[in-house]
Every structure is written in structure tokens, then in C-alpha cells.
Amino acid sequence: MGLEGKYEEVKSEGFEAFFKALSAGRPEGQQPRGPPKTPNKSLSISINGDQVTVDRGEEFKPTYTLNKEVDVQGLGGKPVKTKAALAGDQLTVESTDENGTFKRVYALAGSELTVTYSSSKSGVPQATRVFKKL
Predict the structure, then answer these.
(1) What gap in Å lies between CA 32 and CA 46, rounded to an integer?
(2) pTM
(3) For the domain with range 5-133, which CATH number is right: 2.40.128.20, 1.10.10.10, 1.10.1040.20, 3.40.50.720?
(4) How far apart are CA 82 and CA 102, in angstroms?
């Protein structure tokens, strides 16, 4: 599978605005943690059968079961319903809680992986991270 592998981040856009808008109106303690001050620039994706793990080298290293809703630690630290789907070289992960749906799309084109973050919450802009495959 082409999507599997290790990547190094080369560009990140829109994260401060994304997390600020996503946090608006959430109670204290349920706000997204936002991007780390010194983020890990590496990403690893592994696929084993219907299990997909996205490892950023941080404490949050989720494993998703393809096409099945599972509970995963959410942005505020509590479990959220999450479903992942794989179509060719694109992994789509959607997490839903009482605040709406948080979507991540990992799309590989050649050696470039673009991760697009979006939310169903009104007024939340998209954010992107671009990685090069190692």
C-alpha cells in the first residue's frame, strides 16, 4: 500500500485559526489541545489488515479499524465516535461528538502527503499539513 510509511513535515498552514475557532464555545477542559508549541515533524502510517495506525510520535497515537465506528480519545481528552475509510492512497478519518464532526483526510500524491483538517462547526477554517515521504 502506497500510503504506508514514514513522512517528514514540510509545511503547516492555518492551525492557530483552526483550533481557535474549534475551541470557541466549548467548556473549559473540553477544548482541543491545539498544535504543540514544538510539534513533532514526523508522521508514520502503518496498515495491518483492517487496522490503521497514525503515529505522530506524541502521546496520541490512534489505531483505527477501517469502516467500523470505534471510540478514540478526542481533542478534549474524552472518547469520541470515530470512523476511518481507506480508498486507494487516501485515508479519511471522521470523529463525531456533541460539537460536530472533525475530519482528517490523508491524501498521497507521488511522495507528498497532504493532511487536511476540517470541522462541521460553522466558522472553522480548514488547516493543512504537507509531508514528504522518506
Answers:
(1) 25
(2) 0.86
(3) 2.40.128.20
(4) 9
